[in-house]
Every structure is written in structure tokens, then in C-alpha cells.
Amino acid sequence: MISLQVNGKKVELDQPTSLLDYLERLGVNPRTVAVEHNGEIIPRTSFTRVTFRDGDTVEIVRMVGGGSRPSPQIPLPDGERVPG
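The structure corresponding to this sequence follows.
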């Protein structure tokens, strides 16, 4: 079992998972987010090369442009929603 923090919430995964696979599992378009993994901003071109491991810390921020609408929330596997 892999335990990590995503946007300040504890998340458990069955096995090491790539960043891209995790985003797809959440139904999040990888082109609409910025990701920090263990304190490092990850370029989108590296989303397939980053694999989450036990103890990792991840921040996922959804890009929202030019509006006053609240941003959609990013879903977590357990049904909770994390602000984007």
C-alpha cells in the first residue's frame, strides 16, 4: 500500500502509480493542471516519468483563466473533492 499526501489529504494507492495514470484515474485533464511533487514543479512532458511512492507529497492545481467563476474541484478516489 502506498500512502501519500495530495493537496494536504492522505491518499492511499494499491501500488506505485505514475502521475499521468493518477490524473487519468481522477478524470483530470493533464493539460489543465500544474503539479508539484515533493517540492518540485513537474513539467507536463514528465508526467509519465514521475511515479508516486510511499510518503510522497503532491500538490495539484487546476489552471483557470480570466474569469470570476470558482474553479472546479479535483476529485479524490474516495469521493472527496479537493479545491482545484
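Residues 74 and 82 are 5 Å apart (CA to CA).
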